[in-house]
Structure formats: C-alpha cells, structure tokens
What we know:
The chain is of the alpha/beta class. It folds into four domains: 216 residues, Thiamin diphosphate (ThDP)-binding fold, Pyr/PP domains (Rossmann fold); 80 residues, Rossmann fold (3-Layer(aba) Sandwich), CATH 3.40.50.920; 172 residues, Rossmann fold (3-Layer(aba) Sandwich), CATH 3.40.50; 65 residues, Alpha-Beta Plaits (2-Layer Sandwich). It is built from 23 helices and 24 strands. The mean pLDDT is 91.
Amino acid sequence: MSSTVIDKAGSRHLLMGNEAIARGALEAGVRVAAGYPGTPSSEIIETLAAVAGERDLYVEWSVNEKVALEVAAAASFAGLRSLCAMKQNGVNVASDFLLHLAGSGTRGGMVLVPCDDPGALSSINEGESRHFARMVEIPLLEPGDFQEAKDMLCWAFTLSEEIRNLVMVRSVTRLSHASGSVTFGDLPEVGGRAAFDCRGTLLETLSDPLRGPLIPFPVPVHHARQQQKLARAVALFESSPFNGYDGPEHPELLIVTSSICSLYSREAVHLLGVGDRVGILKLGTTWPLPPKFMRSHLRRCGRVLVVEEVIPFLEENVKILAADLGPWTFFGKMDGSLLSAGELNPDRVAAAVAQILGISYRPVPEAYAARAGKLAETGAPAREITFCAGCPHRASFWSIHGALQLDGRQGFVCGDIGCYSLAMLPCGFSALKTLHAMGSGAGLASGFGKLRDFGLQQPALAVCGDSTFFHAVLPALVNAVHNRSNLTLVVLDNSGTAMTGFQPHPGLPVDAMGDIAAGIDIVSLCRSVGADVHVCDPFDLRRTRDKLLQLLATEGTKVLVLKQICALSPEKKGKKRFRMSVDADKCLGQACGCNRLCTRVFMCPGLIWDARRGVSEIDEVICAGCGVCADICPAGAIAKEEAV
Length: 644
C-alpha cells in the first residue's frame, strides 16, 4: 500500500475511503498523526504509518483517544499540520480535552477524523460524533464519496489555518471501508521546523494567535473569539465546492443529504426514474449550515426529505433555518439579540426585549454608573488572584521557572486543572504556557517530546497534582514511556484533592467514608511503568532546582514528585514550622538589587511592603511559616527559627 498511496499526481487508484483520507492528509502536508485503534477508523493511521519513513512523518498509536488528540495538538501548537483519528466512541473519551482545545484554538492546521458506525457493524452502539462539533463549536465537514474524502481533507487543513481552530471531518463505515476511484493531487515537499512560541502574555495571544501561551483565559473573551472563528468558517461555507444542487429548477421534492447518504439518494432517484421531479441538495459543510446557500435552495420546493445517518442532526438544523422562511420572526442568540458567550442577567434580557419592541432602555442609570465607577477607583485596592501563604506550589514554580531560565533553551510548562492552574499568572511566575483539561499537560508534553526530529529543541515539562495524576495523567505517562518521549513530569503532591475540599484519592489510605483504604504510591507506580523517578521537597529550593536541571539534561521520560502537604489541609492548617521575621536593618527594599524581590516577584501574601518605612514585613496572621521566603531573599534579611 505504501507505494500506492504516495504515487504521483494525476494517477488514479481504487482506494478504501480511509486510504483516501490518508492520501488527502499527505497532500495537505501532514507531519504528525495520532490515534487509537477502533473500527472503522483504524486504516487511516495504519496507512500513514506505512509511509512515515518515506514522507518524514511521526505516527503514533496513543494509549487512548484523549492522549492521541493531545499529541496531535502539541504538533499543531508547534506549527506543524497534524491529524487525529478515532471511532465514534473515542470522541467521548477525547471530549474533555476537545472542549478545551476548541477554546484555546490551534496554530498549524489540525483535523480530527471521527469515523461513525451506523448500523453498529463493528460496535455495540450507533453513537454520533456530529453533536460534539456543535457542542464545542468547531466546523464539521462530511465527504460524500471517495474523491471528496481525499479532497476535503486538504481543504480542512486550509480551513483550520484560516480560522486557527480544529476542524472535524466525519466519516462513516460505508465510506471508510468501501472503495472507490480516486485521482491523486500533488504531494508537497515536506519540511519546516517545529517551534512553540509561548513568549508574551495572555492578552498578546488575543492579538497574535501564533505566539504567546495557549490558555483560553479569560474564558468569555476566548469563547466570543471562538464564535468569531466559527462565523468565519460559515462565510467560507457559502461558496464551498463541497456543497451542490442537482435536479430541476422547481422540484416536487427536495432531498437534503450528506455523507454516504448522498450516494444512496442519487441511486434511489435513479432507480425510480424521477430525476425530473426530485432535486438533491448535497451538503459537505454540515455544521454550521451556510444560511444564504441553504435558503436559496429551500425556496425551490415546499416538500423536503432529509436523508442522513443516524439521528436527525441535519434535519433539526435545516428546520431551524427553514423557520426563518416562514411567517415567524425569531430573535435570540443567532441574530445577536442575546450574547452567546458569558452569563445572562435580567438587564441583558430586558435590553433585548426593549430592542425588539423599539423601547428606549438604559440598564444602569447614568448617575449610578458614574458613582460606581468613582467608587471602583477610590475604594478597596485591587487584589490579584494568588497562591495561599505557605502554598508549596509557589515554591515549586519558583524552582521550575529558575531551572528553565538557567537551562536556556526556552523550555516551557504544560499545565492542567487544579490549584496550580494559577501558575499561568504572575503568582506562579507565568510558568504555564498551555492550560487545558485534566491530564492534558502530560498528554501535550508527550507530544512535544516527540518533535525533536522536526527541529524542536525546547524542553517540555508537564505539571499535575496528585489527584489529577490518578484521574487522567497516568495514561499519558504510559504513552510517553511507551513511545520514548522526552518529557519531564512534575507531580505536585500536596496529599489531597486540595482545590475542592481535600477529598481523598487513590494515593491516600482512606476512602470517601473515612474507612481505611489501600493507598497507591505514586513513586512506585511511576517506576513500575518504566519512568525515571525522583522525589524532592519543594521547600528545599536549591535541591529542587538542581534536580530539575539534571532531569532537563537527561533523555527519556522522567518524573519528579514534589511532595509537601497543602498549607490549608486539616493536618497542617494553623500549625507553623517556622517563626518568620524581617531584619529591617538588612532589608534594602527598593535600593536592593532585587528591587523588592520578596513582595514584587515572589508575592507570598504573608509578606507585605511597608512603603512608609521602605522595608518588607511579615504578616503574622497570614504567614504559614513555611520558611521559603528566607531562602529567596538575596540580602539575607528574612530569618526563620523553629516554632515551638
């Protein structure tokens, strides 16, 4: 097959649908492909794997579909075109990361190919993947024959880079596993270096999607931006070459169809000999539907038959569009009367009603707005979101940030969901450069760790909490070890699910009812899968930093467990290990070369700046007595002594 699928342009071959999809990806210049085996999708990855050496590809069977999507996303973040393939059940597995990925967007073109199984020919369900496109707000394409399966893949990568987001191309069993004639296009020269440009701030990413951290924060802003991308896709769909009408000008019946059902519809019309009475509107861009194109054809006929597999996804969307052609006028989110991002409130609903009824309405009286603005300027000072006093995560990210700076290769940290997500902010020294679903930091780093052959020299680290490790990181770690990925995973073990109230997890010797349970040791578990594992106390800054530097210079999959109990945990809350103090004579404040390193950069809430005296102080009420600030003060002005 390898010699066939990479044959010269203009040649014509009988290809299975999945092979046509693979050829389309090759013609688009795909560099990385990942998936998890599942009929009817498996041949896509198998076909690409067979030509990986000849076409300079990296192809991976990942440990599950979520990790496969993360591996492919890492390539996209580094500027390479990537593909991820799975069967319909796999989209359920990948959906956690899929939702976050749609929010952050992509860089290099990225295509997700789910293959559904109508009739459950090789499954135990007829699950639909199309709903995920609508749910996470990404474009959905559906090829109608084998030539389109190839051509549409090329167009999907271009569309992805046009809108800087993931594009879904859905296949079904009768397309994936049947065969048809396909004419090949040109294969591009493969090349280009991988690089993840994560410099800059979160706001700079909004103005330049090709640089800065890939973190969908603030969420409402990114959500609105995501919908703008979708609107751009709809505008392109209006003139898509994959939508078309065939039939009389004014048919007695209009068939609206997509995917392999377009072939079924054509054959049915031919069998009945009713080509002069029935028109076929074949759609390749099925979510969102292009409204102008659809309305121009729906007006042809008063009777419409929607032919699709399996449930009425297309039918529902066609009916929604058709409602605008009737005697009704609808208002809401689709026409912009109400926002499609962020929360609603009575004022926003009232404003929409007033606009529709032509009523003058001001949600907030001018005098009230002016007074509120004045109070905001002169009232309580702004308080940044930050780690708690004595939080081990602040110490961990101090060491991580320092080690990456000393390493000097523009390394970066992939994060996920937990208290440590705050490391995207100054309180964590802006260390996190990606932030997606639970466990996705490790999955993305597993992908980044395989891009050295494409020129990526930046070391990739991933961070996770101990609870998150059991929730979703373990599969990604197994994936990294199996595929020999260069990855440093830092487990921030604070002995509990701290963010949500210290609920137990499998690493603790207690269950939800307070009974004795079998605690699973993270260190032993990581070693058992073949990772190189080390343990440090994050409050020991020098040893932690030196160990990180050592691991960054080492090949393979490494794990560093930074173990220190949360300052707010029931076992530790209110108990101080050290009594902290500041020697005012040694503290040089702004005159020091550090320029208030403790309160300006380290920013523990237990440290305060006395502007009148020009020195730092310890807030005895807030200070947790961890002692770390004594180690970061270059003047040695902060002292610690063992608490009794």
